[in-house]
Every structure is written in structure tokens, then in C-alpha cells.
Amino acid sequence: MRRISDFLLKTRYIALAIILAAAVVCGVLATTVPVNRDRTKYLSDKSNMKQGLSIMESEFPEAEEKSSVRVMFDGLDAEQISDVKARLEAIPNVSGVAYEAGSEDYNKGGRTLFVVASGFDYNTDEEKAIEAAIRDGFNEFTMSYRNDDIQSTEIPFWLIPTALALVVIILLVMSDSWLDPLLLLIPTAAAVAINMGTNIFLPYIDGVTYSVGPVLQLVLSMDYSIILLNRYRREREKTVSKTDAMKTALAGSMSSIASSSLTTVAGLLALVFLSFKLGPELGIVLAKGVFISMISVFAVLPALIPALDRQLEKAKKKSPHIPMGALSRFSHKARRIMPAIFAVLLIGFFFLQSFTTITFSEKSDDPLADVFPKENAVAVIYANGDEEKIPGIISELEGDEHVSGVNGYSNTLGRELTAEEMRGAVTALSGETQLDESVIPALYYAAGVERMPLPRLFDVLSDAAANDEQLAALLDGETGALIRALRAELTDAVRQLRGETYSRLVVTSDYPDESPETLAYIEKLDALCKSGLGEYYLVGDSVMISEMGDTFDNEYLMITLITALAVFLVVLIAFRNPTLPLILTLLVQCGVFITVSFIGAYSGSIYYLALLIVQSILMGATIDYGIVFCNFYREGRKTADVRGALKSAYEGSVHTVMTSGSILVLVLTALGIFASAPMISSVCITLAIGAFIAILLILFVLPGTVACCDRLIRGRSRSGKATAAGHNTADK
């Protein structure tokens, strides 16, 4: 450590210049990193749904309608309904307005629903103009609307400066100098810029990674700067030389900072084992960010702190003194029963957390869906050769009261029609029939069939016109133009359902995206396809949720074990004693169990991404506070008894724990409360609660447990004699 600190001090100005230059370059590059909003891209390559999506992209043309807005009115009469529909249709760039009189899907409890469709994608100027016209154009009615876009996962811009202001306030309150916040934020800000810029090497990053990543990096790595600055001040009181003080501070704090950083990195990298690739992306970006933060602290602060030593002294102020005597006395007195309390907490909450349901869909406030449930569409992709097996599947699905529509080629455009049925279909398609009543029966006679699908009629009509001058003359006029337009429209419609190799069956229901009933419905659909079809693929939001749920439990268990083992090994290397790593790993895992149980008791469920982040970040990040405490305890035991070592450990670590912990808890709580995106809110609130619980465990449970295990922690010297002050002082 001495040799490394010597090197860092000799090269400190070069390192500072490199970090600042990299921050500027990467800050520019960060603006060019693509942000992904399509979660299906994160499906495993082995995913049945992902293969189905790939087939859909290659076999079926993109839908003309790219966005839709649901609009609900209260208390409209028949005349007003007609007027409102016409006004919605007249909005520029609206391609159509869906509404059915008499249908409960559009009329319920005095409320009326219209679905406004557009050929422009969400968040384009045209689509935003449509929403603005809806918002401002119907003020005389009680109305609400909501688009069907995927919920934004970006943090509102105003929340970022608010979060930074909160960080600065906490640092100002807790620091010893008015300049501390600036000094502490410089290496972290540089690291955030470098991390965001180096994301350019990824094909894209998710909105969650883009929004929450920088904030999590800030709050997770702030304690590295705090640890080094606090250590420098302690050493500065002992020596006149600023350089010597920094050298000693680096050597003394490097182990704590490095082990704290590497435990966090290890916990985050465990996410790479998730098959849903959002986990690996988030883990890699955050792990990279935390590691860069550690490098930035070692590169920036050894140059800045000594250089600003005089200014720091001039700007000195009183920081809160947190008396720890009572807490250290409590921990010493409770040391014999604390391991038992710890064991009860660990085992008890391990069982309690198993009752918390894990959810994979984002909860959002949608008042329209409370009245008119959103359609849940699932596409079945199957080989064209299996078309004759589809009617049986359709028949089974139509018996489900929640299924509102089953649309495939065989029961719509490909359905065999009699001549009379065909005449009705043509009338419905064109709005009028300009063909002579005898033409359609004649075409059936010419084709030698009694039934045929609608697209086949136009093929027969074209063939017959080529050999019948009278019919050809008919097709040269206005009727011919209509027939050609209808044929083109039918061709496009057929291509939406039947490709060159595969066909598509779209099943629409009012099942929620995620529920036990929805899961049973997806399993039933899968079983029907498996028994009736050869090759098939299911595509839809509920299908993706089902796939994630099928693999999550095993993957989460694997991640938990990998995280715990990785963190244990990193701390073991730092302490060279298995007792402390075992205590710290179990303690923070206990914090995870308590957090999951608490969230489950409050809301009944926990969002899977929040659970993963809590597991990986709490295990890797809040263990930092335990490492700092234990380092001070071990140093204190070299010259003091257990009671004295506990007191010095509390006093040496409390400032770092309370400062960094306050930032972690309060900033994430603020983001969770004010973020409009349900996913961001869930992740931030869950992590804030987890961090608070972990801090309580480290302050109240860890010290007594460490004191009880003092003999195991101290070990023996090479000569076989007890180290430090001797075992005879262990219980003093």
C-alpha cells in the first residue's frame, strides 16, 4: 500500500489531467449513446418469443398504425357521440377512430371510449400534436385520455438538479469545510461522465440504465471520496507535511476503498448471469461506473486535497458531532446475545420474504383501464402448412369469456364463403355493391366451386375478365377502379396474416398483462398450440412476462449465491480472516430479506428489477459501511480492549456511514417519490428502504456480533501468542 501510495502521489498531476480530459471527451460521447425503449430486445436468444418476433419482422409488413390514444368521455348522448367522433377524425394526422355503438368495449356506465389511431410513432411532433388537440379541443366535456406508448423510464430533467442539490446540502451539513462538497463531487462527476461516455461501446442502453445509472453511481461511490478525505484530516493532525499526510491517508484507506469498490463491482457483475439481458446491461454499466469512480478518487483527490489544504482550513466549519458512547456501551453489553438476535432475524425474514410476490410488469395509474380494460393481444406464429389445424384452436379460444377476438387467416379473409355470403362481404368491404347481382354467382360457376375465400374472388374476377369482353368493359369504368382498390387493400390485409412461410393468429382478451389468471391463460394457449401445431411461437407482453417468470426463480437463486460468494471472497482477501467476511455477507443478506419482506407486507409484491438491484447493490454497496467499521475495530484492538475498540470503530466510521448513507437513502427516496415512471419509482424506493435497513443492521447488530466473535476475528500471531492486547482483555 505504501508503494502504491508513493506512485499515486508522484504521478498525481498527470493522473488528474488524464481523468479531467477523459471526462470532457466522454461527456460529449455520452450524448451520442442510443437509448432503447424496446424491452423485447433483451429477451434471451433462446427465447421462443424472440424467435417469433424475428419471424414477424421478416414475414409480415409493419402496421400502418404506429400509435394510438384512448379517449374517454363522460355522459355523452347519441348526437354528441357522433359529433365527438367526427371531431376526433378531423384532427390532422389521425388515420382512424375506433368506436362501436352498443358495444360494452366502448360504452359502459355512462362513459364512452374512442381509440384514436395515427400512422406516426409515439413522441413524434405529429403524434404530440394529436394529443395536444385532444387535450385542448374538448374542454366542454369531462374527458380523460392516455396514449398506449410504453411508459417512459426517464427521470424528469428537474429532478436531476434537485437530487444534486440534496447531495450538496447533506455534504454541507456533515462536512468539516464549506469546500468539501465541491471537492468530493469533482472525482464522482468526472467518473459519471467517463462511464456514460464509455457506454458508446454498447449497441444501446435502456432508459432505466440511462436515467438511474448516473444517480446510482453517484450515491454508491460517494463514500470513497469521503473515506479518503476523512482519513487525510486525521493524518493531517499528526503531521506537518501535507504530502506525508496524504501518503499515509492513501495507504491507510486504500484497502477500505478498494474492497468496498470491488464488493460493489462483484455484486453488480452477478447480474450478467440473467438471461433477460437488461440485467447484464445494468450490471455491466454500474459495475464499470463504480470501478471508474474508485480510479477517479485515487487519481483526483491526491492532487486536489493537498493543493487546497490551506483553502480547506480557511473554510473550516463545525460538523455535527454524533456521540457514540452510549451505542458502543450498548453493543458491548449486548455482545453475548447479539449473534442469537442476528440468527433469528436472518432465519425469520428468510421465510417471511418468500411470501412476497415477484412481478414483471410495471404498475401504472391508468384510470381508463379501470373502466375499459386494455386489450391484451397475443400473436400465434405458425407454419402455413398447419392452417387446417387452426379452426380447432380458434374454437377452443372463443369459449373463453375473456377472449374478445380471435383473428386469423382461416376465420377471416381465408374463410370459405357461399355466393350469398360473398355478396355481403363485398358490400361490407366497399360500402356498396357495384357488381351486378349475377356476376358473383357466375364467378363461382366459372371457378367450379360452391365456396371460396374473399381474396380468391378477385383472382377469379381478373381471370374471367381476361376472357369476357363484357365483363372487361365493366372493369374499365368506375367499378373497375373500385375493384382494383379493394383487391390491393385485401392483398395488404392478407399479408398481415399470412406470409410466405408463416401465418399469424391474433388473440385479443381483456386479461391484465400479469395475473395468475393471465398466466393460466397463456399456459392454456401454449398447450393448445403444442397439441395442435408443429412449429409455433407466441408473442405478446404477457408471453414475455410468462417467459421471465419461468426462469427467474432459478436465476435469482444463482445470482444470490454468486453475489454472496464473490463478496465473501473480496472481503476475505481484504481481511485475511474468514470470520468477518462471513458476518458481513450474512448481515447484508439479512438486510435484503428484511427489505423484501417489508415491501411485500406493504404492497404485496416487489418488482423484479427492484429486487435484483437491491440484491446486487445492497450486497455489494452497503457492505462498504461494515468494512469501514470493521477496519477501525481491528485497528482499535491493536491498542485497546473490546469496549475501547468498539468506541473507536463507531467514532471512526460513523461520519462516513451517516454521510454516505444519508445521501443513498434521502436522494433515492426523493427520486422514488417524485419520479413519474413507476419502474424508476419502484427501484429507487426499494433501494432506499434496503439501504436504511442495512445501515440499522450495521450500527446496531454488527458491532455486538463482532465483539462476541472477537477471538475468532483477531486470530493468533505467527508465534502462536494472542495478538493485540491479549485475550485477557477481550471481555473488558
Write structural notes for this entry.
The chain is an alpha+beta fold and 732 residues long. The chain has 4 domains: 1-37 and 156-319, Multidrug efflux transporter AcrB transmembrane fold, CATH 1.20.1640.10; 63-147, Alpha-Beta Plaits (2-Layer Sandwich); 326-355 and 577-732, Multidrug efflux transporter AcrB transmembrane domain (Multidrug efflux transporter AcrB transmembrane fold, Up-down Bundle), CATH 1.20.1640.10; 419-497. Helices cover 64% and strands 9% of the residues. Strands 2, 3, 4, 5 and 6 form a 5-stranded antiparallel beta sheet that branches. α1 packs across α9, α8 (207-236) runs antiparallel to α25 (642-674) and α17 (439-447) crosses α18 (454-467).
Quick one: how many beta strands? 13
CATH class of the largest domain: Mainly Alpha
State the helical fraction. Answer: 55-70%
Global morphology: elongated
The description of the largest β-sheet is: 5 strands, antiparallel
Low-confidence segments? 716-732
Category from helices, strands and their pairing: alpha+beta
Please identify which CATH superfamily of the largest domain we are dealing with. Answer: Multidrug efflux transporter AcrB transmembrane domain
How large is the radius of gyration? 33 Å
Beta fraction: 5-15%
How many H/I helices?
28
Please give the alpha-carbon distance between the first and last residues: 33 Å
CATH architecture type of the largest domain: Up-down Bundle
Count of domain modules: 4
Mean pLDDT score: 86
CATH T-level fold name of the largest domain? Multidrug efflux transporter AcrB transmembrane fold
